[in-house]
Structures are given as C-alpha cells and as structure tokens.
Amino acid sequence: MDDFPRSAHDPVDRPARQPAPRDGQDRDLLHHDAGDPRYAHLDPRDPVHGGARGTPAHTAVHEASRRHCRDLQEAVGRLHRDHADRLARWGARLAAVLPGGGRLLAAGNGGSAAQAQHLTAELVGRYRQERPAYSAVSLHAETSSVTAIGNDYGFEQVYARQVAAHGRPGDVLLLLSTSGRSTNLIAAAATARSAGVRVWALTGPAPNPLADAAHEALCVDAGSTATVQEVHLVAVHLLCECFDAAVEAAAPEAAPTRFVSGLWRVS
C-alpha cells in the first residue's frame, strides 16, 4: 500500500510490461515460420513484418533488398571502371595544393552536405594513418554564416558568398549533388571559377547543370537517389585513399615528419 493517497491522475490497471526479447528471439521477423506460435500475432499479409516465409509480402521485401544491393554493386563497378583515373588525378591535385597551404572547400545540401562534411573531417583529422592536418572546410557547417547569408541574400547565395570570402586562386571547391540541379551549388561554382578556384562536382547521372558549371565532374550513373548517394560515399573514400597515397609518395624520404606537442615538424 502506498504511503501517499492516489491522485485522480494516477494510472490504474496498467497493463503488465512484457519482457524484452532475448538475443535471437523475435528479432528477425523476416525469417519466421508461419507455424511458430511466437509469431501467431503477426498477419502474414503485413508487408511491414514481411509476412510468413514464402508469402508474397515476404518475397517482395527480399526482392527489394536484393534489387537495391544489385543496383549498388553495379554502380560501384561503373565508378571503378569509368572514374578511377579521375579520382587518382583529384587526389594528386589535392596532394599538391593542401600541403602548400591551399584549401579544399566543400558543399552540398541535405545528405550531400553530410557527405561533404565527411570528406573535410577525413582531411582535417585523418583517414587511415597519422599525417599532418590539412585545411578543408565544409561550408554548410558554418551555421551562423549560412543563416545570415540566407536571410540577407537568399538561399541561392549561401555557398557562393562563402566561396567569395574563403576561396583563393589555386584552391579547390568540391560540390556534391545527387540531382546536379541545386541552384546554390551552381552559383557557388560560378563564383569559384571567377576567383580562380578549381571546381569539381560529384553528381547523379549526366547531363546536369552542375556538371556543366564545374571544371570536372564525376557523374554517377544510377537510377535512384539512394544509390547515387551511396556511390558518392565510396568516391569520397577513394579520393581520401588517392590523396594519402599521393602525399606519402611525394614526401621526401630524408625528411620524415613527426608529431610533437600538437605540431608536425621535420625531423
């Protein structure tokens, strides 16, 4: 019995809490057997749970999964076949620009903004192994600038204005867009070219306006936005691989670097 009187708002007749499923129990609803009593409450026609094995709903769920993986595998194969040399050139170009004090600017919208920030984090931090930090800025992450510029000049200028402020001749601007039609990225490309900044684009299928606005474009040939975005992540990692390999190849063997108290120094 409680020491305090029950409030009129206290719940009564609360249903008993069901125990959490143990590991491996009730986890994989896509692979349950229709005769298993643990799954008797599921409607085999329910596409959310996939239905019982062998039902049309179960087959549709698995077919969607296989189709997505097949499309992704084919798109990654085309990336390697058609664009490996381009990514190697881009990595070598960054290896010439960034160690000399140049900068990579990157931008995108939505999921492509996250991809841009992923790339800059790999350069400022590290990708696989210890190396110096390099200047790389993801423009969407400058939230006060983005909101101020958007408020005063319009959303189309949120990246172009930052490129005008931060871009210097010889720097690189990488723009990511699954559609290749984002007007704020196209405006940024035009501003960058006027400032002597090299413009690269990662886009979906060609032709598209952003690819036309860039100096070079890697256009992913895929039928869905999700697959394009997944291949962009692979391209980002390949660019990091090529960059690190080019930096290591260019480093003079007689003057190795070492990390001392937050600074990279020549030994």
Task: Kindly summarize this structure in a few lines.
The chain is of the alpha/beta class. The chain is 44% helix and 12% strand. The protein has helices at 56-97, 111-124, 143-153, 160-166, 183-194, 209-213, 225-250, and strands at residues 104-108, 136-138, 172-177, 198-203, 216-219, 257-260, 263-266.
Looking at this protein, list some descriptive labels.
five-stranded parallel beta sheet; 267 residues; two-stranded antiparallel ribbon; alpha/beta; single chain; disordered N terminus; disordered C terminus; 7 strands
Structure overview:
The chain has helices spanning 56-97, 111-124, 143-153, 160-166, 183-194, 209-213, 225-250; strands spanning 104-108, 136-138, 172-177, 198-203, 216-219, 257-260, 263-266. The protein is an alpha/beta fold and 267 residues long. Helix 2 links the parallel strand 1 (104-108) and strand 2. Helix 4 (160-166) runs parallel beside helix 5 (183-194).
